[in-house]
Structures are given as structure tokens and as C-alpha cells.
Amino acid sequence: MIHHMLSTLMSKLWSGWGTLAGVFLIFALWQVGFETFGSLVLPAPLEALSRLVDLVALPSGLEYILITAKRAFAGFLLASAFGIFFGLIAGWSNTLSLLCKPFITVALGVPPIAWIVLALLWFGGDDGTPIFTVFISTIPLIFAGALQGVRMREKELDEMAQSFHVPLVQRFWQVQAPQIVSYLFPAWATALGLSWKVVVMAELLSSTRGIGAGLAEARVNIDTASTMAWIVVVVGLLLVIEGTLLNPVKDYVEGWKHAE
Predict the structure, then answer these.
(1) Per the CB 3.0–4.6 Å rule, which of 32, 121, 203, 225 could disulfide with 51?
(2) Which helix (H) or strand (E) holds 37?
């Protein structure tokens, strides 16, 4: 027990150091780019970080971050609810599974910028445009992950549980759900990262508030330092979400793979 806990702790520490080393490498390459091309093309990392502190200190800066987070999570949660529900239903039906493949292909083939234009026509410059764009851009990934999880589960385990007369609900939660989630989780994690990129793009073109709006203001003012500061905010939030939400959930849902 103690050996397992120490092994888990060392694994997490090593993973954290690896992530930190990657971040330092990015900043080192950034510094090289600054020294090569100059501040107009790529500002110094310290200058961008200093501008980031100034932006966050402003009431509007923190408000922009919260607005973007609200829109990204709203669209992502809606896509998760509908994508998982309909993906599970389609996964258990061969007919629905075949019928849904063209729709998934079409949905994945339409670029987010096209959805943004349509959303602007439908919802205008309000919250509806970025939320809808996140929803429609991420739901195909989540739907496909849920469908694939159902189709690829070990049916022998279902038959064994059924032979022992395990109740249907218990059979789903203890036998089927862990297998489905192991396929769903990579798609779900990818969709969560995509939601941040899409919401910033939608705000850049449609909104006067949010991180995307901050990037639009920096572009108009030819303020490269502010541009890089907002990019650091997005990347930093993604790293925080990965470390505090995605990795713990991944360890939990994949625990059955390593169980003795």
C-alpha cells in the first residue's frame, strides 16, 4: 500500500517536472525568437508577462477571462450532455450507428469559421454565437467517442455479468461504463481543449468582451505584447485545466486497467 502511494506520488512529481521543463523550453525558444526578429514581431517573454500582470490587474481584464471561461464551459457542457446521450443510443444500434457516420463526417468537415459566420447571422454578437460555435464544433468528437466506446466494449464481460444475473443498472455502471469512458475520455479531453480555441476565435470576430475581444483590441493597436499576454492566458488556463481536472479524471476512469 505504502509502496503504491509512493510510486503514484513519484509518477505525478515526474509528470509535473516534465510539464514544467516543457514550459521553460517554450519560453527559451520564445526568447530566441525575440532576439532574432525583434519586439515588433515577437516581444520579449518578460515584457509579455509584465503586460499580462497589468491586464489581469484591470477589472476588465479579469472580466474578459471569466466571460471566456463561462462561454467555453457552457458550450462544452451542452456538447457533452447531448453528445454522450445520443452517442450511447447510436452505439447500441447498428442501424443508427451507420446512419450517423455521414453526419459526423459532415460536422467534422465544416471549419469553425463557417459555424461562426452562421452563428453571427442567427444570434448576433451576443453570448449565443461563441457558445453555439463551441457546441457545434465539439459535439461530433464527443458523440464519436461515446459511440466508439459502446461499439468497442468487451461483450464477453457483458455476457459473464448477465450469466451471474447482475442487475441491468449495476451491469452498466460497473462493467460497461468504465470501458466506454476509456474510449470517450480522449475525445472529451480533446473537445475541452478545442472549446477554448474556438471560443476565442468566435469572440475575436463577434464579441466586444472576452479574451478574443482583447486580442482584437491588441491587433487594432498593433500591440504585440498584449497579444502574447492574452495567448499566455489561454495556454495557462489550458495547462491548469489539464492538471487539475483532466489528469485526475483520467487517473480515476483508467484505474480499472491497472487494478490487480
Answers:
(1) 225
(2) helix 2-37
